[in-house]
Amino acid sequence: MKRIAILLIxxxxxxxxxxxxxxxxxxxxxxxxxxxxxxxxxxxIKTENIxxxxxxxxxxxxxxxxxxxxxxTLIGLxxxxxxxxxxxxxxxxxxxxxxxxxxxxxxxxxxxxxxxGLRPLLDSVTxxxxxxxxxxxxxxxxxxxxxxxxxxxxxxxxxxxxxQFPIETTEILQPKMVLRFYKNFAxxxxxxxxxxxxxxxxxLIVKWQPTLLEFSDGTKIEVNLNK
Length: 227
Known about the structure:
- The chain has 227 residues and is an alpha+beta fold.
- It has two domains: 27-105, no CATH class; 110-222, Immunoglobulin-like, CATH 2.60.40.
- Helix content is 37%, strand content 29%.
- The protein has helices at 2-21, 38-48, 53-67, 79-108, 192-200, and strands at 111-122, 129-139, 145-155, 161-169, 178-186, 205-215, 220-222.
- A four-stranded antiparallel sheet has the order 4-3-6-7.
- A hairpin with a 5-residue loop joins β3 and β4 (161-169).
- α3 crosses α4 (79-108).
- The longest helix has 30 residues, at 79-108.
- The protein is elongated, with a radius of gyration of 29 Å.
- The model is unreliable at 10-21 (pLDDT under 50).
Protein backbone atom coordinates (compact mmCIF):
# COMPACT_ATOMS: atom_id res chain seq x y z
CA MET A 1 0.00 0.00 0.00
CA LYS A 2 2.85 2.34 0.83
CA ARG A 3 4.36 1.83 -2.62
CA ILE A 4 1.00 2.44 -4.27
CA ALA A 5 0.57 5.67 -2.30
CA ILE A 6 4.04 6.85 -3.31
CA LEU A 7 3.28 5.97 -6.94
CA LEU A 8 0.00 7.90 -6.87
CA ILE A 9 1.68 10.92 -5.32
CA UNK A 10 4.37 10.77 -8.01
CA UNK A 11 1.74 10.67 -10.76
CA UNK A 12 -0.08 13.66 -9.25
CA UNK A 13 3.15 15.63 -8.93
CA UNK A 14 4.19 14.85 -12.51
CA UNK A 15 0.74 15.74 -13.83
CA UNK A 16 0.84 19.04 -11.97
CA UNK A 17 4.36 19.70 -13.24
CA UNK A 18 3.48 19.14 -16.89
CA UNK A 19 0.29 21.16 -16.51
CA UNK A 20 2.34 24.07 -15.22
CA UNK A 21 4.78 23.62 -18.08
CA UNK A 22 2.06 24.01 -20.71
CA UNK A 23 2.19 27.44 -22.27
CA UNK A 24 -0.95 29.50 -21.87
CA UNK A 25 -2.02 30.93 -25.21
CA UNK A 26 -3.76 34.13 -26.14
CA UNK A 27 -7.39 33.69 -27.16
CA UNK A 28 -6.73 36.15 -29.98
CA UNK A 29 -4.35 33.83 -31.84
CA UNK A 30 -7.17 32.16 -33.76
CA UNK A 31 -9.33 35.22 -34.43
CA UNK A 32 -9.72 35.85 -38.16
CA UNK A 33 -8.51 39.26 -39.27
CA UNK A 34 -10.97 41.53 -41.06
CA UNK A 35 -10.64 45.03 -42.46
CA UNK A 36 -11.58 46.57 -39.12
CA UNK A 37 -10.67 44.32 -36.20
CA UNK A 38 -6.86 44.22 -36.26
CA UNK A 39 -6.38 47.07 -33.74
CA UNK A 40 -8.93 45.38 -31.46
CA UNK A 41 -7.06 42.08 -31.69
CA UNK A 42 -3.77 43.73 -30.74
CA UNK A 43 -5.43 45.63 -27.89
CA UNK A 44 -6.90 42.39 -26.53
CA ILE A 45 -3.50 40.68 -26.73
CA LYS A 46 -2.04 43.53 -24.68
CA THR A 47 -4.86 43.30 -22.12
CA GLU A 48 -4.43 39.53 -21.75
CA ASN A 49 -0.70 40.01 -21.12
CA ILE A 50 -0.09 36.34 -21.88
CA UNK A 51 1.94 36.41 -25.09
CA UNK A 52 5.72 36.41 -24.63
CA UNK A 53 7.82 39.34 -25.80
CA UNK A 54 9.40 37.05 -28.42
CA UNK A 55 5.99 36.18 -29.87
CA UNK A 56 4.93 39.83 -29.81
CA UNK A 57 8.06 40.74 -31.75
CA UNK A 58 7.40 37.89 -34.17
CA UNK A 59 3.83 39.12 -34.75
CA UNK A 60 4.96 42.72 -35.19
CA UNK A 61 7.64 41.76 -37.73
CA UNK A 62 5.15 39.55 -39.56
CA UNK A 63 2.59 42.35 -39.80
CA UNK A 64 5.24 44.75 -41.09
CA UNK A 65 6.64 42.34 -43.66
CA UNK A 66 3.41 40.77 -44.93
CA UNK A 67 1.09 43.73 -44.67
CA UNK A 68 3.39 46.65 -45.47
CA UNK A 69 3.00 46.60 -49.26
CA UNK A 70 -0.35 44.83 -49.56
CA UNK A 71 -2.44 45.04 -46.37
CA UNK A 72 -5.30 43.06 -47.93
CA THR A 73 -3.18 39.91 -47.80
CA LEU A 74 -3.76 39.84 -44.03
CA ILE A 75 -7.54 39.59 -44.39
CA GLY A 76 -8.77 36.08 -43.61
CA LEU A 77 -5.61 35.10 -41.75
CA UNK A 78 -5.23 34.70 -38.00
CA UNK A 79 -2.38 35.99 -35.83
CA UNK A 80 -1.28 32.36 -35.37
CA UNK A 81 -1.11 31.81 -39.13
CA UNK A 82 0.74 35.07 -39.69
CA UNK A 83 3.32 34.08 -37.08
CA UNK A 84 3.72 30.65 -38.68
CA UNK A 85 4.35 32.31 -42.05
CA UNK A 86 6.93 34.60 -40.46
CA UNK A 87 8.66 31.72 -38.66
CA UNK A 88 8.95 29.77 -41.92
CA UNK A 89 10.30 32.89 -43.64
CA UNK A 90 12.96 33.29 -40.93
CA UNK A 91 13.91 29.61 -41.11
CA UNK A 92 14.26 29.76 -44.90
CA UNK A 93 16.56 32.79 -44.63
CA UNK A 94 18.59 31.08 -41.92
CA UNK A 95 19.00 27.96 -44.06
CA UNK A 96 20.18 30.12 -46.96
CA UNK A 97 22.76 31.80 -44.70
CA UNK A 98 23.91 28.42 -43.37
CA UNK A 99 24.22 27.13 -46.92
CA UNK A 100 26.40 30.10 -47.94
CA UNK A 101 28.56 29.67 -44.83
CA UNK A 102 28.96 25.92 -45.38
CA UNK A 103 29.80 26.44 -49.06
CA UNK A 104 32.49 29.01 -48.29
CA UNK A 105 33.99 26.82 -45.59
CA UNK A 106 34.09 23.92 -48.06
CA UNK A 107 35.95 26.10 -50.57
CA UNK A 108 38.42 27.35 -47.98
CA UNK A 109 39.17 23.75 -46.96
CA UNK A 110 40.62 23.19 -50.43
CA UNK A 111 42.86 26.23 -50.82
CA UNK A 112 44.47 29.12 -48.95
CA UNK A 113 44.90 32.70 -50.07
CA UNK A 114 47.46 35.09 -48.61
CA UNK A 115 47.53 38.83 -49.24
CA UNK A 116 51.15 39.84 -49.85
CA GLY A 117 50.90 43.59 -50.25
CA LEU A 118 49.98 46.59 -52.39
CA ARG A 119 52.04 48.84 -54.63
CA PRO A 120 50.88 52.20 -56.06
CA LEU A 121 51.00 52.63 -59.83
CA LEU A 122 51.30 55.71 -62.04
CA ASP A 123 51.00 55.52 -65.82
CA SER A 124 53.85 57.62 -67.22
CA VAL A 125 51.84 58.50 -70.32
CA THR A 126 48.24 58.99 -69.15
CA UNK A 127 49.18 59.84 -65.54
CA UNK A 128 46.37 57.52 -64.45
CA UNK A 129 46.83 56.15 -60.96
CA UNK A 130 46.34 52.57 -59.90
CA UNK A 131 47.18 49.98 -57.29
CA UNK A 132 48.70 46.55 -57.76
CA UNK A 133 47.54 43.88 -55.32
CA UNK A 134 49.85 40.92 -54.71
CA UNK A 135 48.54 37.63 -53.34
CA UNK A 136 49.16 33.90 -53.47
CA UNK A 137 47.02 30.77 -53.61
CA UNK A 138 47.91 27.38 -52.14
CA UNK A 139 46.09 24.27 -53.35
CA UNK A 140 45.37 22.15 -50.26
CA UNK A 141 43.27 19.60 -52.13
CA UNK A 142 44.29 16.41 -53.90
CA UNK A 143 42.97 17.63 -57.28
CA UNK A 144 44.14 20.33 -59.71
CA UNK A 145 42.21 23.58 -59.33
CA UNK A 146 41.11 25.22 -62.56
CA UNK A 147 39.50 28.43 -61.36
CA UNK A 148 39.10 30.49 -58.19
CA UNK A 149 36.93 33.56 -57.77
CA UNK A 150 36.21 35.71 -54.74
CA UNK A 151 36.44 39.08 -53.04
CA UNK A 152 39.50 40.40 -51.25
CA UNK A 153 38.03 42.67 -48.58
CA UNK A 154 39.65 45.36 -46.45
CA UNK A 155 38.12 46.21 -43.06
CA UNK A 156 39.10 48.83 -40.52
CA UNK A 157 39.68 47.85 -36.84
CA UNK A 158 36.00 48.63 -36.17
CA UNK A 159 35.10 45.82 -38.62
CA UNK A 160 33.66 48.24 -41.20
CA UNK A 161 34.16 47.28 -44.83
CA UNK A 162 36.36 49.90 -46.52
CA UNK A 163 36.75 48.37 -49.97
CA GLN A 164 36.66 45.03 -51.74
CA PHE A 165 38.37 43.85 -54.89
CA PRO A 166 37.19 41.03 -57.20
CA ILE A 167 39.91 38.40 -57.56
CA GLU A 168 40.03 35.47 -59.94
CA THR A 169 42.56 33.10 -61.41
CA THR A 170 42.21 30.68 -64.29
CA GLU A 171 45.74 29.28 -64.10
CA ILE A 172 45.86 25.58 -63.22
CA LEU A 173 46.90 25.11 -59.62
CA GLN A 174 48.26 21.62 -59.04
CA PRO A 175 47.78 19.85 -55.67
CA LYS A 176 49.96 21.35 -52.90
CA MET A 177 51.24 23.98 -55.34
CA VAL A 178 51.73 27.62 -54.30
CA LEU A 179 51.36 30.31 -56.97
CA ARG A 180 51.73 34.07 -56.66
CA PHE A 181 49.58 36.50 -58.60
CA TYR A 182 49.02 40.22 -58.98
CA LYS A 183 46.16 42.32 -60.29
CA ASN A 184 45.94 46.01 -61.13
CA PHE A 185 43.05 48.20 -60.04
CA ALA A 186 42.25 51.84 -60.79
CA UNK A 187 42.83 54.36 -58.00
CA UNK A 188 40.64 57.43 -57.48
CA UNK A 189 42.50 59.98 -55.38
CA UNK A 190 39.19 61.78 -54.72
CA UNK A 191 37.66 58.66 -53.19
CA UNK A 192 38.49 58.48 -49.45
CA UNK A 193 38.17 54.69 -49.35
CA UNK A 194 40.73 54.29 -52.12
CA UNK A 195 43.12 56.54 -50.22
CA UNK A 196 42.65 54.59 -46.99
CA UNK A 197 43.45 51.28 -48.69
CA UNK A 198 46.49 52.68 -50.51
CA UNK A 199 48.04 54.50 -47.54
CA UNK A 200 46.97 52.32 -44.63
CA UNK A 201 46.55 48.78 -45.97
CA UNK A 202 49.01 47.45 -43.37
CA UNK A 203 46.65 48.68 -40.63
CA LEU A 204 43.55 47.13 -42.18
CA ILE A 205 42.11 43.66 -41.67
CA VAL A 206 42.13 41.61 -44.86
CA LYS A 207 39.40 39.02 -45.34
CA TRP A 208 38.68 36.62 -48.17
CA GLN A 209 35.18 35.76 -49.38
CA PRO A 210 35.32 32.95 -51.96
CA THR A 211 32.52 32.75 -54.51
CA LEU A 212 33.69 29.99 -56.87
CA LEU A 213 36.02 27.03 -56.80
CA GLU A 214 36.30 24.85 -59.91
CA PHE A 215 38.46 21.76 -60.21
CA SER A 216 39.96 20.48 -63.44
CA ASP A 217 37.59 17.51 -63.41
CA GLY A 218 34.62 19.89 -63.70
CA THR A 219 33.56 19.78 -60.04
CA LYS A 220 32.31 23.17 -58.85
CA ILE A 221 31.63 24.69 -55.44
CA GLU A 222 29.85 28.00 -55.85
CA VAL A 223 28.06 30.67 -53.84
CA ASN A 224 25.06 32.23 -55.56
CA LEU A 225 25.25 35.91 -54.60
CA ASN A 226 22.12 36.78 -56.60
CA LYS A 227 19.74 34.88 -54.29
